[in-house]
Amino acid sequence: MEILKTKKRMQQWSEARRKKGKTICFVPTMGYLHQGHISLLEKGRPLCDELVLSIFVNPSQFGPNEDLDAYPMDIESDLRLAKEAGVTAVFLPQKEEIYPHDFQTRICLDSLPHHLCGKSRPVHFGGVATVVTKLFNIVMPDVAVFGKKDYQQFQIIRQMVSDLDFNIEILGGEIVRESDGLAMSSRNAYLAAGQRESALSLSRSLHLAGQAIAKGEKNPAVIEKKLIAFIQGFPETRIDYISFCDPTTLEPVGLIDKQILLALAIRVGKTRLIDNALIDPSQ
Ligand code: PAF
């Protein structure tokens, strides 16, 4: 497994593989790898000749009062896990390598970033789209895998790749959960022991909503009311949003008569957690 720290070396590595007719699968991350990331690497490994992982905590996707400075890191463990997962190259740049002092371009999408998490994180998806564009140009992959836990991010990347004609196939990896249902996230590391139970309010809400829809409830407002009461029953929770929306446009739906995305963001203490499920009333 090679570790490449500059754009030039990463590009040369990819160009050399592509010249030999090798295909490249790419999994971008901000590090602190957990089983959710490993599942993306496992999904990508058999698809291409090479598997590239990037580790870069991207400052441009954090707002001024967010957790950039506290974001957990463990490069030694990340490199060990990457090797075990069959990664052939790790792109590990410093901030200045990605954002030189004269950097001034930003990728914006018209509507997708303004729903769900974008409402309380106005700079987030512009930062994600910009860094992913740069990473695509540096790594030059054939296929890239993104986790569906960040469903809005996944949808934004798919839209961007289509709009900007990137010749890259975007695949989604399913949400990986702890045995108690909590969706895996690097931010779970922030949860104190007592907050862990409250964090389960997310996955349990998805389950409750699924049951209500299976029983024939079609009105999102009715289910939302039940979920609010349910979540507020857990200590230290504060709801950021509960959204029943169209899985493609992320626009809220008024009636659950076809597959919808139920997406949640809840603060548990200071930790903001997200989760989601696609729910189909016909199933
Ligand atoms: O999902 C993430 O870890 C990040 O948003 C990504 C895609 C690596 C961009 O920084």
Q: Notable features of this structure?
A:
Pantoate--beta-alanine Ligase, Chain: A,domain 2, 283 residues, three-stranded antiparallel β-sheet, single chain, alpha/beta, globular, Rossmann fold, 9 strands
How does this model look, in words?
- The chain has 283 residues and is α/β, with parallel strands linked by helices.
- The protein has two domains: 2-173, HUPs (Rossmann fold, 3-Layer(aba) Sandwich), CATH 3.40.50.620; 186-279, Pantoate-beta-alanine ligase, C-terminal domain (Pantoate--beta-alanine Ligase, Chain: A,domain 2, 2-Layer Sandwich), CATH 3.30.1300.
- Helices cover 37% and strands 19% of the residues.
- The protein is globular and about 55 Å long.
- It starts with a strand and ends with a strand.
- The structure holds pantoate (PAF).
- Residues 28-30, 58, 61, 128, 131-132, 150, 153 line the site of pantoate.
